[in-house]
Amino acid sequence: MVKEQQDQGMETATLGQRTEPRIKAGLAVLVRTPNAVPMEGCLLDVSPKGARIRVPNLVPVRTPVRIEAHELLLVGNIQRCKLTHGAYEAGIVLSVPMDRLVELRLLDAALWAESEYV
Question: Does the model's pTM come out above 0.90?
Answer without folding.
Answer: no
